[in-house]
What we know:
Blueprint: E1 10-16, E2 30-36, E3 42-48, E4 58-62, E5 67-72, E6 81-83, E7 93-96, H1 104-117, H2 125-144, E8 148-149, H3 150-155
Antiparallel strand pairs: 1-2, 1-8, 2-3, 4-5, 5-6, 6-7
Amino acid sequence: MNRLASWPVRAMGLAGRCYRGDDVDQNLDHYSVEYTFADGTNLFMNARNISGCHGEFASYAHGTKGSAVSSTNMHTPAKCRIYKGHNLVKSDLVWAFPQPEPNPYQLEWDHLIDAIRQDRPFNEAKRGAEASLVQIMDRMASHTGQVVTWYQALNHDHEFAPGLDT
């Protein structure tokens, strides 16, 4: 299987910064990123961190046969559900993850501790590094206004954390 099958191959983004009081950091106030996968599928991410604006933390998928909510509420509980149409209304609900659902952050620890106790290999480093590279693509595309590919982000010579290894 192509190792990039589950990760976007490029990102195109835009972002901006509004007045943030005395906050001094590298974060922008709003982001909009279009991720493109190898098969041409697109994922759109929008985020805004501006006081007084509509605030929502959720991930949605829209396809030709329906839609889904893949995460809400800071991922815990995610309240994943699938709809037969594009209106997220109860009458179109096809499936919902049973509630209450386990906390995914606790499950990460449970899986690690279980692997240690059972003396089984458990290594999320590759997946974690690849997920972080997607976020780096996002930031590079949003901050530069350029389309950034997986390989460009992976091979870029910018030091994102200077002095960290000293």
